[in-house]
Amino acid sequence: MTQLTRAQIEWTLLPPLKDVLPYRFENGASFKGFRAECDSCGQPIELPQVRGRITPLADNRCVVSASGHCVVCNAYCEYHYLLSANGKLSASPLTYWDEHALPPQ
Hints:
Layout: H1 6-13, E1 23-24, E2 30-31, E3 36-37, E4 44-45, E5 50-57, E6 61-69, E7 76-84, E8 90-93
Antiparallel strand pairs: 1-2, 3-4, 5-6, 6-7, 7-8
């Protein structure tokens, strides 16, 4: 029996990101996706291999939380961005830390 890693299980449970694209903001701007790249080997990860969610926020913003599966090296990569469509569409990476560790200073 093959054991699945936590990353494989989490990726499988997420919906395909392409199912919620293009995402439309309240002001009419749209987000059509992003170019995912593998953290391990640097190869592009095609949209069908990216799964995740888009959570709407106030003021023409949303959070993109996604995971990509690299078919070249079999790695799973995480992507977390805050998107803002006030004026020009911009993306800011979000970072997470262990809840038991101290936040970065």
